[in-house]
């Protein structure tokens, strides 16, 4: 089942956060916007004598016509619809979005949040400090927990993934965790952490 199909069934106001520590996990929720990933490029600039690093996106696409021409050569059918070719090639194993009655359905792009352990063309490594395979654990999952333990208070999804990337880089892992979600959810608190108001903090400190 496509994760997009599950996300589209969420009730209004709900959010679906998926943490995937698996190989080739980048982009598992179809149509979610890439916030941190292979198409996101670090750009540095100097402002008032200080270097600031920003993220900018660089589109990387394969022309639609080229994809369609290739699929036509392997499917043997003449159709301008990619879904027709995939259905012919994979039958019932084709994605749900290409099944009868699925086309034309509105797919929301703002309810899913994917934190992947690596890019779609990478593998997600295991950490095994003791050398015993039975005690191995996901390097991405471990780095995520380490980052959350370091945080004092709430942290947004984007900042959390950046912290995890830094920890993995320091551990000399070659994978690159990614974040896919809407612009709004990119800076939303991870798992909707509650925000403690200043007034509540003051009362708590006084007690």
Automatic annotation (TrEMBL):
Protein name: Peptidase C14 caspase domain-containing protein
Pfam families: Peptidase_C14
Similarity remark: Belongs to the peptidase C14B family.
Species annotation: Nymphaea colorata (pocket water lily)
GO molecular function: cysteine-type endopeptidase activity
Any GO BP: proteolysis
Location of the Peptidase C14 caspase domain: 5-182
InterPro entries (alphabetical): Metacaspase, Pept_C14_caspase
One cellular-component annotation, GO: cytoplasm
Gene3D superfamilies: 3.40.50.1460
